[in-house]
Amino acid sequence: MKTKIYFNSLISLILLVFSVNASAGLIFSDNFESDTVAGGVTGSLVNWNITSGNLDVVGLGFAASLCNNATAGHCIDLDGTNSNATIVTKLSYSLSAGTYLFEFDYGNNTTQDNSLFYSIDNINSNLGSLLSGSVSTMFIMDNIYSHFTANFVVSSATNINIIFRGAGTANSYGSVLDNVSLRSVQTTNVPEPATMTLIMLGLLFIVSRRRLSQ
Ligand SMILES: [Ca+2]
Ligand SMILES: [Ca+2]
């Protein structure tokens, strides 16, 4: 009887250990609501460094209609004043092995050709990008944004930055960005060595008690 209780407890422990890492988690998100509305911004935003060019934080009093449908509030025009901007997250983020979901909303401040480059880069530049590419941006008719979504796999733990860069004619009307997010959707549930040792000791304990009671 006692052996059965021990066994059930051990099973509960094992299930707990395996479920701890399984929860999906938000790693980074920005809807630019914390940034001050302004044109031709250089230097930095709340969550980003502007590493080249300049951008506009669009919102109430400054072309606000560009942003209204994504979430009422602010968005970014990556062609500030005659200059396409590159933005890089101020912080780097640790990703363990697993699968991740990257999303953002995008549009265009003009009917002219513009595009938007995105990249999730290892901060060790020798390791390159985990995910990168570009989208052609479409003029935001009636504020209907396009939504970008992509999964990518991290095979071993690493630290990353998120990067965006506007491209196209630098004429103050550029690609528009909003609602950036990165989340883990599945991490690899491998118990750590110490946990594995505890489980093995527990199993040995149960087997030895069974033998004694027979
Ligand atoms: Ca926004
Ligand atoms: Ca602009």
Can you lay out the helices and strands and say which pair or pack?
Elements: H1 2-20, E1 25-30, E2 38-44, E3 48-58, E4 75-77, E5 86-89, E6 93-95, E7 98-108, E8 114-122, E9 129-137, E10 146-154, E11 158-168, E12 175-187, H2 193-213
Antiparallel strand pairs: 1-12, 2-3, 3-4, 3-5, 4-12, 5-11, 6-11, 7-10, 7-12, 8-9, 8-11
Bound molecules: calcium ion (CA) (2 copies).
Residues 31-33, 67, 70-71, 73-75, 178 line the site of one calcium ion (CA).
Q: Could you explain how this protein is built, in words?
A:
The structure is a single chain. The chain is of the alpha+beta class. It folds into two domains: 1-21 and 193-214; 23-188, Sandwich (Jelly Rolls). The chain is 19% helix and 45% strand. Strands 1, 2, 3, 4, 5, 6, 7, 8, 9, 10, 11 and 12 form a twelve-stranded antiparallel sheet that branches. A hairpin with a 6-residue loop joins β8 (114-122) and β9 (129-137). α1 runs antiparallel to α2 (193-213). Residues 31-33, 67, 70-71, 73-75, 178 line the site of one calcium ion.
Number of helices: 2
Distance linking N and C termini:
12 Å
Q: Into how many domains do the coordinates divide?
A: 2
Q: Mean pLDDT score, rounded? A: 85
Largest sheet: 12 strands, antiparallel
Counted beta strands: 12
